[in-house]
């Protein structure tokens, strides 16, 4: 894995989830297997792991409930290199990135944010963040978009993220994770509950 070294480590926020079994076992067992691999990545230090949360599949009715969590990392890897490493872990656990968007999967490792970086640049980020809902399922960017363009809309991301990075501020929306969570529309948190493990 090619890495760029920065003068100081950066904060990376990663959402973890899955709703199907993998060779490692249940979704929660698969997430734990992914965490064991993440902590072995060079240039990465795991700082915090949220509780595991049961969340309804998105879109509603598209499959079994998900198990979701969030982690915060310190890293000297460039965001593209870190994402490539996360995709390698997904592949090792049996994930195949093909087919329809938002389909059921055994593991999903999404790079949600990297410090206060906006990628690839402000105009493109704003375009993808403001994409109408009916186009989101049909269109996927061909480049890394950071922060994740749907971050502010998803309770299943914000709830666990608030446990590991409550004060991280979205560089375009100028709101913290806690503030974004508080401004979700009614019903956005329906069905989200801690997984008792």
UniProtKB/TrEMBL annotation:
Domain of life: Bacteria
Catalytic activity, EC: 2.7.6.3
GO terms of molecular function: 2-amino-4-hydroxy-6-hydroxymethyldihydropteridine diphosphokinase activity
UniProt keyword list: ATP-binding, Folate biosynthesis, Kinase, Nucleotide-binding, Transferase
Top enzyme class: transferase
Domain called 7,8-dihydro-6-hydroxymethylpterin-pyrophosphokinase: residue spans: 14-166
Gene3D superfamilies, sorted: 7,8-Dihydro-6-hydroxymethylpterin-pyrophosphokinase HPPK
Record pathway: Cofactor biosynthesis; tetrahydrofolate biosynthesis; 2-amino-4-hydroxy-6-hydroxymethyl-7,8-dihydropteridine diphosphate from 7,8-dihydroneopterin triphosphate: step 4/4
InterPro entries: Hppk, Hppk_sf
Classification via Pfam families: HPPK (PF01288)
Family listed: Belongs to the HPPK family.
Biological function: Catalyzes the transfer of pyrophosphate from adenosine triphosphate (ATP) to 6-hydroxymethyl-7,8-dihydropterin, an enzymatic step in folate biosynthesis pathway.
Protein name, UniProt field: 2-amino-4-hydroxy-6-hydroxymethyldihydropteridine pyrophosphokinase
């Amino acid at each position: 894995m090619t890495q760029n070294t920065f003068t100081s480590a950066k904060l990376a926020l990663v959402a973890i989830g899955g709703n199907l079994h993998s060779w490692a076992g249940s979704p929660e067992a698969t997430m734990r297997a992914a965490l064991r691999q993440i902590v072995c990545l060079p240039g990465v230090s795991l700082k915090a792991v949220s509780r595991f949360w049961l969340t309804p599949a998105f879109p509603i009715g598209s499959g079994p409930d998900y198990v979701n969590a969030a982690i915060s990392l310190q890293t000297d890897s460039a965001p593209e290199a870190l994402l490539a490493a996360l995709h390698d872990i997904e592949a090792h656990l049996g994930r195949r990135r093909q087919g329809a968007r938002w389909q059921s999967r055994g593991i999903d490792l999404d790079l949600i944010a990297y410090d206060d970086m906006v990628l690839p640049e402000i105009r493109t980020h704003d375009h993808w963040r403001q994409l109408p809902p009916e186009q989101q399922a049909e269109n996927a960017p061909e480049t890394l978009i950071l922060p994740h363009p749907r971050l502010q809309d998803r309770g299943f991301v914000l709830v666990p993220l608030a446990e590991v990075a409550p004060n991280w501020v979205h560089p375009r929306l100028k709101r913290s994770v806690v503030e974004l969570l508080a401004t979700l529309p009614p019903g956005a948190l329906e069905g989200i509950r801690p997984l008792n493990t």
